[in-house]
C-alpha cells in the first residue's frame, strides 16, 4: 500500500515570527505540523519540527491528473504566510527498502513577487519527499492520513505475560490457639484459606491429632501466578466450628521467594510462622506455625485458551522448549463491506476498524483505519511455530476508545473473527482468501462484512521434526505425570484469561478486556441450546460412515444389486480361504479411500461454518438464553419456561442412558442366573457351538455363516430372528428402579 512520505526537518532565515508551523496539502489531504521548537542558543529564525507525514497515495491517479504537493510555512500567532515549496507528484522518487533513507535537502521558500519584495517571504526549509509503503522504517513514527489518532491507532505487537502454576501443598499446623469453650465431644473444624490476588481456595476440614494437638491436611491447591512475581501468597488458618469463622493466624509469603521446578522432583516442605491480626509486617503475636510445600511449576502449560483452539502447548520453563519447526506468516490485507458501527457527525454511520491476531504468546494489532467501510491494512506479521496442530485467531473490532474520554472507557465493538488451523496448511503455499465476518447477536446471526488475509506456513515439506510432532503428546510431560482435574483446569483457565486481559489493558495502546476475552473464547463453556444441537449433529456426522456401511451391507444382503452381491460372495470366499489377506486388504482399502478423497480435499483453509454452528435458524428464545447472565436476569416466568424445556430435554437423555444401561445389563444376565432358564439355554448353546467349532473346520464355519447372512430374501423371514428375540427377553435392572 503506497504512501507519500513528507519529512519536515527544520528551516533557516525565516522572517520574524513567534511560532512557525508547516502546512502540507495535496489534492486529497491537508495536514498541519506541530509548533516549531527553537533550540537554546540557536537563532529564532531557525525553527525545527522533525516530523514525518504518511499520506495515502495512488501514483497512477496522481500522475494522470498532474497532482502537486504544496508545503508552506506559517506564523501561528498572526497566520501570516512565510513561504512555500511546490512539488510535482509525478517526479517524486520511489523508495523500496532496503534502499537507504532519502537525505533531506534545503529548498528555497517562495511566494508572490510582492511578498518577496516586501521581505515577508525569505529563508529555506529542509525536507525530503518520497513514495514508499508501510514497510518503510519511517512509517511507525509517521502521522498517517488513515490513522490520525496516534495514541490508539499505531500498529503494535504485544506479549502475553509469563504464567506459572503455583502449587501450594498444606501439610500440617501446630500450636494453634483453639477456643477452649467447645461443646463436649466436638472436634474443632479448622481449615486453611489461601489467597493470591483475586484467586482464593480453601482446604477441607483438617484431621486432628489428639496426642499432639496438631492438624493435618496433605491437600494441594493450585493458583496462576504471572511475572513479574510481585504478589504475595496469603494463608489464613480459620476455625469454622461456630457460625462466625475465626482467624487463628495468617502468613504472607512473597511469590518471588518460592522455589521453581521443571519436573516432578521432590520439593522439601518448610515451616512458616503464623501471626495474629495485628501482624502484617512480621511483628504480630505468635499464633502457631504451618508446614507448607510450595513450588512454581514450570513443566506445565498454563492454558488461557480453550483446548480445541489453543495456539501454543509449550511449558512455562523455557529450557523445556523444543526448536521451532517453521514460521507462520500472516498478511492482513483488508476488509470490505463492513457495517456502520457508530454514528458521528450528526448521525452519519461510521466504522473505525482494526485487526487483532493472536498466536502463541504474541498478539499483534493493526493500525485503525478511520471512517471506512472498506479498510485496507496491508500489514504482515510472522510467528514461530512449535506445533503444527495449533490455531491462529484473527479478529476485527471497531475502535471506540480513540474517541471516548478516559472516564467513559467504552469497550470496543466486535465485528467478527476467523480461525485458521496451521495443520490444514500445505507447506510453503500462500493462501489468499476472503472470509465472512459473522457475529451472533441476541437478535440472530449477522454478517458484518468480509476480511481478506494471506497466510503461509513456511517449513520444509517433510521435515522429520514436523512429522515427529504428530506422534508426541499434545501437552507437556507434567500434565500426564500429575494431571489436573477438568473442573480445576476450567477454574485455572478463567484466572489465566483474567490475568492476560489485565496485563494487555495496561499497554499503550491498550487491548481491552472485551477484545482479549473474545479472542480467547472465554465464554466457550457457557450453556447454549444451539451449541448442544450443533454437538449432537456433529456426533451424527461422525457416525454417518457407520450408518452408510450398515446400509450398504443391508443392500448387499437384500440383493438390491445382484452383481455386487455375487462379487461380495467371491471376495468373501477368497478372504476366508486365505485369511492372511484380511488385514492387508483392510489397510489397502483405507489407502484407496484416502487417495479417492484427495480430489475432494479443501482448497483453502476453512472459516466459520454457519450450518455447523446451527446459527441459521436458531430460536430467538434460545438465543436470549445463550446471552443471559449468571445468575439469570430474566423474569421468573421466563426462567420457569426454560427450566421446563430443559427438563423435557433431560428426560430424553435420561431415557437414552437407561436404554444403554439395559443393553449392558442384558449381556451380564446371560451368565448371572437372574433368569435361570435363559442362562441354561445360553450355556447349552455355547457348549454346542464349542463342539461344532472343534469338529468342523473354521473355514467351513465362516463360509456357512457368511452365506447364511447373505442369503436371498426369498429364504429370509421378515420377523425378528431367534437370537435377537432371545436377547430382548433377557432381564435388566430397570424393573428394580423406584
From TrEMBL:
UniProt cross-references to PANTHER family, sorted A to Z: PHOSPHORIBOSYLANTHRANILATE TRANSFERASE ISOFORM 1, PROTEIN QUIRKY
Domain C2 intervals: 1-107, 144-272, 309-435
Annotated signal sequence range: none
UniProt family annotation: Belongs to the MCTP family.
Highest classification ranks of the organism: Eukaryota, Viridiplantae, Streptophyta, Embryophyta, Tracheophyta
Entry-linked Gene3D superfamilies: C2 domain
Protein name (database record): C2 domain-containing protein
Family annotation (PROSITE patterns): C2
Membrane topology according to the record: Multi-pass membrane protein
SUPFAM superfamilies: C2 domain (Calcium/lipid-binding domain, CaLB)
Source species, domain of life: Eukaryota
GO cellular component, one term: membrane
Keywords per UniProt: Calcium, Membrane, Metal-binding, Repeat, Transmembrane, Transmembrane helix
Localization (cell): Membrane
Residues spanning the membrane: 565-598, 681-710
Amino acid at each position: 500500500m503506497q504512501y507519500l512520505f513528507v519529512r519536515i526537518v527544520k528551516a533557516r532565515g525565516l522572517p520574524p515570527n513567534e511560532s512557525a508551523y508547516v502546512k502540507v496539502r495535496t489534492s486529497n489531504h491537508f495536514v498541519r505540523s506541530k509548533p516549531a521548537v527553537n533550540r537554546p542558543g540557536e537563532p529564532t529564525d531557525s525553527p525545527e519540527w522533525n516530523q514525518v507525514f504518511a499520506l495515502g497515495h495512488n501514483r497512477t491517479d496522481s500522475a494522470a491528473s498532474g497532482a502537486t504537493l504544496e508545503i508552506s510555512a506559517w506564523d501561528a500567532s498572526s497566520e501570516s504566510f512565510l513561504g512555500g515549496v511546490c512539488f510535482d507528484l509525478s517526479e517524486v522518487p520511489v523508495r523500496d527498502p532496503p534502499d537507504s533513507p532519502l537525505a533531506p535537502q534545503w529548498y528555497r521558500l517562495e511566494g508572490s513577487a510582492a511578498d518577496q519584495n516586501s521581505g515577508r517571504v525569505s529563508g529555506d526549509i529542509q525536507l525530503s519527499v518520497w513514495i514508499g509503503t508501510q514497510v518503510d522504517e519511517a512509517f511507525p513514527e509517521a502521522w498517517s492520513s488513515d490513522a490520525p489518532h496516534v495514541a490508539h491507532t499505531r500498529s503494535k505487537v504485544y506479549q502475553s505475560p509469563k504464567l506459572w502454576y503455583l502449587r501450594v501443598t498444606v501439610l500440617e499446623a501446630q500450636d494453634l490457639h483453639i477456643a477452649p469453650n467447645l461443646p463436649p465431644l466436638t472436634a474443632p473444624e479448622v481449615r486453611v484459606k489461601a489467597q493470591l490476588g483475586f484467586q482464593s481456595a480453601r482446604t477441607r476440614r483438617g484431621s486432628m491429632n489428639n496426642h499432639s494437638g496438631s492438624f493435618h491436611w496433605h491437600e494441594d491447591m493450585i493458583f496462576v501466578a504471572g511475572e513479574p512475581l510481585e504478589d504475595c501468597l496469603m494463608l489464613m488458618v480459620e476455625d469454622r466450628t461456630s457460625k462466625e469463622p475465626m482467624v487463628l493466624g495468617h502468613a504472607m509469603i512473597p511469590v518471588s521467594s518460592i522455589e521453581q521446578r521443571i519436573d516432578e522432583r521432590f520439593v522439601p516442605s518448610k515451616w512458616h510462622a503464623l501471626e495474629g491480626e495485628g501482624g502484617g509486617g512480621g511483628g504480630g503475636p505468635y499464633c502457631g506455625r504451618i508446614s507448607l510445600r510450595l513450588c512454581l511449576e514450570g513443566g506445565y502449560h498454563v492454558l488461557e485458551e480453550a483446548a480445541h483452539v489453543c495456539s501454543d502447548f509449550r511449558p512455562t520453563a523455557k529450557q523445556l522448549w523444543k526448536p521451532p519447526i517453521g514460521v507462520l506468516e500472516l498478511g492482513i490485507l483488508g476488509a470490505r463491506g463492513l457495517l456502520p458501527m457508530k454514528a458521528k457527525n450528526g448521525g452519519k454511520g461510521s466504522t473505525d476498524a482494526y485487526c487483532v491476531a493472536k498466536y502463541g504468546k504474541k498478539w499483534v494489532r493493526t493500525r485503525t483505519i478511520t471512517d471506512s467501510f472498506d479498510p485496507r491494512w496491508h500489514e504482515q506479521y510472522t510467528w514461530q511455530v512449535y506445533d503444527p496442530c495449533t490455531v491462529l485467531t484473527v479478529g476485527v473490532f471497531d475502535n471506540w476508545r480513540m474517541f471516548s474520554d478516559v472516564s467513559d472507557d467504552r469497550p470496543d465493538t466486535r465485528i467478527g473473527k476467523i480461525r485458521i488451523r496451521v495443520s490444514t496448511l500445505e507447506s510453503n503455499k500462500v493462501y489468499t482468501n476472503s472470509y465472512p465476518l459473522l457475529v451472533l447477536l441476541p437478535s440472530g446471526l449477522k454478517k458484518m462484512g468480509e476480511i481478506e488475509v494471506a497466510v503461509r506456513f513456511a517449513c520444509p515439506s517433510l521435515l522429520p521434526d514436523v512429522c515427529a510432532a504428530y506422534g508426541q503428546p499434545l501437552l507437556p510431560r507434567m500434565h500426564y505425570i500429575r494431571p489436573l482435574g477438568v473442573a480445576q483446569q476450567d477454574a485455572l483457565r478463567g484466572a489465566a484469561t483474567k490475568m492476560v486481559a489485565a496485563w494487555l489493558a495496561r499497554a499503550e495502546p491498550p487491548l481491552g478486556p472485551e477484545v482479549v476475552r473474545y479472542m480467547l473464547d472465554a465464554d466457550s463453556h457457557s450453556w447454549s441450546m444451539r451449541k448442544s444441537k450443533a454437538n449432537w449433529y456433529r456426533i451424527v456426522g461422525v457416525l454417518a460412515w457407520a450408518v452408510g456401511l450398515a446400509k450398504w451391507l443391508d443392500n448387499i444382503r437384500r440383493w438390491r444389486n445382484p452383481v455386487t452381491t455375487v462379487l461380495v460372495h467371491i471376495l468373501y470366499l477368497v478372504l476366508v480361504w486365505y485369511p492372511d489377506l484380511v488385514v492387508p486388504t483392510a489397510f489397502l482399502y483405507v489407502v484407496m479411500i484416502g487417495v479417492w478423497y484427495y480430489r475432494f480435499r479443501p482448497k483453502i483453509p476453512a472459516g466459520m461454518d454457519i450450518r455447523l454452528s446451527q446459527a441459521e435458524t436458531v430460536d430467538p428464545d434460545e438465543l436470549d438464553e445463550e446471552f443471559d447472565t449468571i445468575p439469570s436476569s430474566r423474569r421468573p416466568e421466563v426462567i420457569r419456561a426454560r427450566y421446563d424445556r430443559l427438563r423435557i430435554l433431560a428426560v430424553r437423555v435420561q431415557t437414552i442412558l437407561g436404554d444403554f444401561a439395559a443393553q449392558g445389563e442384558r449381556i451380564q444376565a446371560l451368565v448371572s442366573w437372574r433368569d435361570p432358564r435363559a442362562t441354561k439355554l445360553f450355556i447349552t448353546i455355547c457348549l454346542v457351538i464349542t463342539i461344532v467349532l472343534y469338529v468342523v473346520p473354521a473355514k467351513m464355519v465362516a463360509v456357512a455363516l457368511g452365506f447364511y447372512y447373505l442369503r436371498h430374501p426369498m429364504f429370509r423371514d421378515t420377523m425378528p430372528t431367534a437370537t435377537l428375540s432371545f436377547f430382548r427377553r433377557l432381564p435388566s435392572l430397570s424393573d428394580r428402579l423406584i
